[in-house]
Amino acid sequence: MITDKNMVRSLGDQPPILAHGRRAPDRREISLRWLSGTFLTGITSSLLMGVALFAALDGRQQLAIPAEAYAALDAGSNGDEQATAVRGGRILSPKLVAKPADKTIMEVSTMTHDGEKEVVRKQPFVHVKMALAANHQASESYPDFDPLAIFSTEEADEESPVSRTGTLYGSNVDSEVALKTVDFPLRGGATFDSSMSLEEVEENVRTNGSVLTEGSTQVASLYYVDPQRFASENDGLDLLQGLTARIVEQNKSDAAYETIDEETTEYADDIIPVRRQTDIATVMSSAGYTKAQAEDAAGYLGQALGASELSEGDVLRIGIIQNGETQKGQDARIVRATIYSRNRHVLTMAVDDKGRFVPGAEPPRLDAVATAFDDNGAPVMTSSHDLPRVYDGIYRAALSYGMNADMVGLVVKLLASNVDFQAQLKPTDSLEAFFSVTDERGMATEDSELLYVRAKFGDAVTAFYRFQDPSDNTIDYFDQDGKSIRQFLLRNPVPNGHFRSGFGMRRHPILGFSRMHTGVDWAAPRGTPIISAGGGVVEKAGWDSGGYGNQTLIRHANGYVSSYNHQSAIAKNVKVGNKVVQGQVIGWVGTTGLSTGPHLHYELIVNGNKVDPLRIRLPGGKSLSGDAMAKFEKERDRIDELLNKDGTGAEVASN
């Protein structure tokens, strides 16, 4: 045992040695340092954990359960393509392969005019539904985003465009049919023969009794006709020829036709390729299933498999039931799970009536199982941080679905007034199109024509139909109410310009006093093209002595006049009396007249009064009426019927 004296000797009884005359530390000072350090360490740790948790949750929010993926993709994933892993440590990419096809090729009867004849023939069309927020690979290069190229057009054509597709015909034809319409002769030329006697009628029936039918029933077999009355001993006709009988099997029920709508229950398969060894619950959670669903299914599968993990190269096939309630936020119900290893069936578990997994038979094979790891896979939903611009998303998706660059460019032009192409895509953004092709490959050519488009960006939906006005043979695109999708007037005639000065009172930069600024200034480098805000007739094109410099005035319909000032030069084809079309280049930005720098001073005059071009409510584009509207409605209804739509362009059934 160590005595007190020995302890003092071992520990020492002298005060600590301090260098440079420094005093001994105060215990209270040491406690304050410790408290401050502990506090700062706790805050730093909390911040780091919060950042990590936020990053994890942000990435996790982008993983959709199969039913959510189905709703976002709208029409489903292309069965010929395969999902690939995306950045963020995701093990797999879900794909619903048993959904309605998102690209359909159909034969449709169309009618074109050939002189006095109307020629009806079948022509292939393609109906595509594209989820834009997906990893599409464009089949060809596409132009960079250029606002001027989107809004500008070529000079007004002298001849009206010719419709190569024609109009949709109301009936199907098996071969090419030529129709010619002539006036019914109202005067003379029509002779009427005397009516047949009763004996002549009976003789006709006696001769043709064996072939006359009413629906699927032979006339001679009807109860009110005596077959022997029309029989002949010498003609050798068999009155029983053509009669058919229907045999109904025992214990067989004929189900009534079920109308499919958004509330109808649908079965779908979710093909999940496993790219590295991991446990079953993690695989399902990474695919978007809830924790409860993943753990419940993993428990049964792990017990039957004898292992809790899946190996690299395995494929997990989940069968789910979903309906309208699923798309409203309810979880999809898992009814079957199958595991494949190297494309070989391992086991299948199915849900019984009590909701428990029991061993089941292997379901019919799907091609998607064998191609689950192919590199040219189906596009998959990506993280919102990786989504491209709207402009790039439209081009990549449309080109990958068989549309050509010219057709996609037309879609972009038609959507330009309603869509911000520089904005980032949202996961639910989609595009639907219906266009003609030349063969069964479903690829658009230079002769293909776009008949219908439905675009959904956020909560805004834009749908329009192609129609050729019979009054002037002009081709344009109209909404369901027959109003042109094109704007009456553009508010910015310099697509590459920047807003510099608005409409209203301001101090004049040259004159030095306040006066009314009767237009809007768009700044741009000298030589930047200026386009016509709308179609009309040139009223003035030349120098203005009042300070406007090179000025162009264009008169539009309904008393509207647009004024373009300070131009460096006016296009040579813009002369008084000439017609211009919307988007046509009419001049170039300059600084002529009373101007401090290159810009366009744009004015809008309505019934002689100058108004604010950015605030005035502009009328819509061309509207159909009368006979043209009636023909448009027929064309619209035929397209809706082909695409299984209601009157608003919304899908009412799955194909």
Rg from Cα: 38 Å
Helical segment tally? 12
How would you classify the helix and strand content by structural class?
alpha+beta
Tertiary shape? flat
Helix content: 10-25%
As a percent range, the share of strand residues is 25-35%
> How many beta-strand elements?
29
What is the mean predicted local confidence, pLDDT?
75
> How far is the first residue's CA from the last residue's CA?
94 Å
State the low-pLDDT regions, or none. 58-101, 156-160, 325-329, 375-384
Query: Quick one: biggest sheet?
Result: 10 strands, antiparallel
Written account of the structure:
With 655 residues, the protein is an alpha+beta fold. Residues 58-101, 156-160, 325-329 and 375-384 have low confidence and may be disordered. Strand 15 (450-457) and strand 16 (460-468) form a beta hairpin. Helix 6 (280-286) packs antiparallel against helix 7 (291-305) and helix 10 packs antiparallel against helix 11 (405-415). The protein contains twelve helices and 29 strands.
